[in-house]
Amino acid sequence: MKKTKHEKHTPAPLKARVLELLAENSGADKRDLARLLGLKGSDRIQLKRVLKELAAEGVIEGRKRTGFTRKGELPEVAVIRVTGLDADGEMLAAPLAWDSNEEPPTIYVTPPKTGGAPGPGDRLLARLEPVGGRSSPRPRDSGDAYEAVIIRKLEAASPSRLVGVVRESPQGARLVPIDKKARGEYAIDKADLGGAKNNELVAAEPVHGRIAGFAKVRVVERIGSMDSPRTISLIAIHDHGIPVEFPEAALDQAKAAQPIDAKGRTDLRSVPLLTIDPPDARDHDDAIWAGPDPDHDGGHIVLVAIADVAHYVTSGSALDKEAIKRGNSTYFPDRVVPMLPEELSADLCSLKEGVDRPCLAVRMVFDAHGHKKSHQFLRGVMRSAARLTYAQAQSAFGGNPPAGMSALVKTTLAGIWEAYRSLTIARGKRDPLDLDLPERRVVLGADGHVASIAFRERLESMKLIEEFMVLANVAAAEALEKARTPLIYRVHDTPSKEKLFAFADFLRTLNIAFAKGQVVQPGVFNRILKASKGMPHEAVMSDVVLRSQAQAIYDPANIGHFGLNLAKYAHFTSPIRRYADLIVHRALIRAFGLGDGGLTDKEIAALPATAEHITMTERRAMAAERDSTDRYVAAFMQDRVGDSFDARVTGVTRFGLFVRLAESGAEGLIPIRSLGADFFRHDEKRQALVGERSHTVFRLGDVLAVKLVEAAPITGGLRFAIMDGRGGEGAAMPAHRPGRPHRTPKRSKAAKPARNKADKRKFKPKKS
């Protein structure tokens, strides 16, 4: 079959060629790359897609003005900020634009031949050249050093808006930024406090002038007192720019919404559909039922009903505009920032027990081995027979139903369980990626403070709901594709060659074979995970496999879902909290003539932009949720500074070890400077720090005894130190270390960049 123009360059070879070109032409933009590749017209669409995927995978980084670079590599010309001098008097700098959680590369500034030398804090436009050149065929490590030749000194620039905590002292008021990457504090004139008090979270803007050498800011918004535990989530909300207040027009539409009229809908009220959710769920957008199929011996009929949000949120309305702006709901330990106003999200759209609710449902028929025989979508009205928690459903599945559970609900749960058992047969043959990733759960007390931190329990009832939802999502994608109706897919690309190479290098250190050139399937990773059971590295193997994967995104073009091992996949089951699902609902309504509220031509034309936007809002929400959890954990751990814990190494970098506590899952950093007098080198392939003289090795997966040294609720950082055999800080080593004494090595010139970073950089807690 003849290839189309868009297929002329297959993604894998094109990705490899793009990386080769960026190695030779760092900072090239999309136009430069298209010219170098000889692409014209519509062929450039594939290049745009490849660049987006490489950026999503973290392999390259894109900047509007300086073009693209490989991950960890700086462009040939960049803006840098002078940070100080090293022990030998050499001037050090850091890139002003650095979006990675990794430490930025060390930059040595060549002093100008004429004019005054720049000082700490000065911003410079400089030409950068890596020590060793840019010819390496693989992405550079973020710890590699650069030499900078000053082009010109730039005027000082200040951020347009800062969020931080007010600190008052006899010397005056200061603003301590919440940003982990912030390099210093700001001064606040008494007249510019705006009534803000000590320990209050505020938003501020820069003003002209300095006080005692600190740039000045003025308070423009008082957010809340840091003494209130609810302020912790507000930090993440403001830091990530998550919209909180709904416009009046959207609120008015939500308040005016009325219960639906069942006329013209398929009546499902006699079907005992059940909602099964966490105990603290505030919205219920999916309900399920299953029973035997009378037409197929051993087969099952599964019904998945989803809240009909499209009935209330119509295209182009004020509610719709705000929903797409938010992209999704964001969940914190103490609150939810919903995609839709509560009148809809927690009431009219929520599938409440015993109440009529509009729904979009899919009826699926499976054979005895869990293979789908058919599916049908319909627009109906339902009435949930019961609201259950995962724990209640699990008890019923185990033969111990909660007291008071009706016979109807028990019978329905039995049918659901039997259907699930057959579906697991097909799932096992499909062999999707099966990662065991512990999830931290922050439990708040009545006073709003953290009562406990533990790992979230993983029940079979959760896996059951996930499987039913996955199958409904697959049916939606298949139905719309067959109907030739545009939609937004949930896609997950295969792991990049660069990540697979790094994964193979690590496995080789464990004597696990992994052919770099093989065509990988999820089952390949599953077999490695299974082989790791009972081994010392079992606890971190899921983390390592996860880091080797691409990130899932939304896209109107389908490339399948690698992790689920599915050719077609879309999000259909959560329209209350995800805009992607609402788009799929509208597409189904349009495709099958299910009434008003179908996808419009205008929406179809905007699908690429919509997909890109909601991918961004999803990542924004995930980052905010993670940061909020980290801050709650740090606040909880403040009272345990000085305590000792068992911890496992979950990340190894040039600047230290990331560790996870066994008892709570709390994560933090052991800075490299605290590992003892030896000089440690980062062995990227082995995922290890290796002592230069003692040959002591700290590896991914090692279990260490650590002491909590610092907990910083403002940034969410935890800092640990290794305990020695006497219970103090020291350089106690893992069991596989060679028993050699520690001696301070003579520093070599080649070792200077890593050493400078370990010795000179002030600790700022970061995540792995």
How would you portray this structure in words?
This protein is 28% helix and 26% strand. By secondary structure, the protein is of the alpha+beta class. It folds into five domains: 1-58; 162-227, Beta Barrel (OB fold (Dihydrolipoamide Acetyltransferase, E2P)); 248-489 and 561-626, no CATH class; 494-549; 641-760, Beta Barrel (OB fold (Dihydrolipoamide Acetyltransferase, E2P)). The strands form ten sheets. It has a five-stranded mixed β-barrel. A five-stranded mixed barrel has the order 8-9-10-12-11. Helix 10 crosses helix 14 (579-591). Residues 1-11, 136-143 and 725-768 have low confidence and may be disordered.
Overall 3D form: globular
Structural classification: alpha+beta
- What value does the average pLDDT take? 84
Strand line-up across the major sheet? 3-4-5-7-6
- What level of helicity do the residues show? 25-40%
**Integer tally of domains:** 5
Poorly predicted regions: 1-11, 136-143, 725-768
Continuous helix count: 17
